[in-house]
Amino acid sequence: MADKVLLPNDISAAGKELLTAAGLEVIVGSGRERETMMAEGKDAFAVLIGTQKFDGELMDAMPNLKVIARNGVGYDSVDVAAATARGIYVVNTPQALSDSVAETTVAELLAISKNLYADSAALRAGDWNFKRTHPGRDLQGKTVGILGYGRIGQLVAKKLAGFDVKVLVVDPFAKPAAGIEIVDRERLFKEADYITLHLPALPETTHSVGKAEFDLMKDSAFLINLARGAILVEADLVDALVNGKIAGAALDVFENEPLPADSPLLQAPNVLLTPHMASNTVETLTRMAVDAASGIVAVHHGEKPQWAVNKLA
Fold first, then answer.
1. From the CB of residue 200, how many other CB atoms can be counted at a distance below 10 Å?
2. How do residues 11-51 score in pLDDT, each as one tens digit?
3. Which among 50, 72, 78, 246 would be 20 to 30 A from 200, CA to CA?
4. Using CA atoms, how far apart are residues 31 and 11, in angstroms rounded to an integer?
5. What's the confidence (pLDDT) of residue 1?
6. What are the residues whose beta carbons fall under 8 Å from the beta carbon of 191, sequence distance 6 or more?
7. pTM, rounded to two decimals
């Protein structure tokens, strides 16, 4: 009997083809709800997930489970310690989506700077002259602060190089390079006209950007977050937006996803909200599916997967 791979949500065909070519049975599930995954994955050798929580209880409901593949970079939603204790590999796809997320970061930065969403919405509502009282801002000559200078942060800086901006970087592991200046957090929040977050969600980064940081920012500055929603104190961001402490924000990630219908963010002014879609492109979805499937196939063959985030004895 072939080992089974549960896909709570479907993936690109190239990923499924890789799994079936390795002799694995692919089960496309009917959703990512806990009870659904427990029922549909009870015999699964592997599961390929998105950002949904995956804890020890779910693992115990899948006694044959040997690998949890994350269709993305962050793996904070997976209880890695619980997986390790049960002899289950956790793998991710760190190289698949960096360019796409960096491109979307720049796109959202430009969108809020130029008021693209608000101007478009006003036009559709019949208000051609909305633009007269809501001018945008040029990026040229401004300062962009990048908090977190890993693969994505570095690509954001690279893609901004043609915009004639000053780039400030905060990251303990960043190395001096042309086109950037490594500074401390206080200076970044005080001086930057645009601050973009590219931090992993760790205990030390969770809720690490809140009132203290918004109080440091210029009232003309913008915040962009395409990393993890838990990094922000969302209530403090809403307060900063409502009271004009900052000029605006663009968010693609939220502490609770999907974003609840009663979230105060939906009523906050000058905020661009997108549904965790920074890597939602045809090319990136294919790369992620192939890379995640490759990790599953490696474990199936008794090999150590290339992008394992945990070590098994």
1. 15
2. 999 999 999 999 999 999 999 999 999 999 999 999 999 99
3. 246
4. 12
5. 75
6. 143, 145, 168, 183
7. 0.91
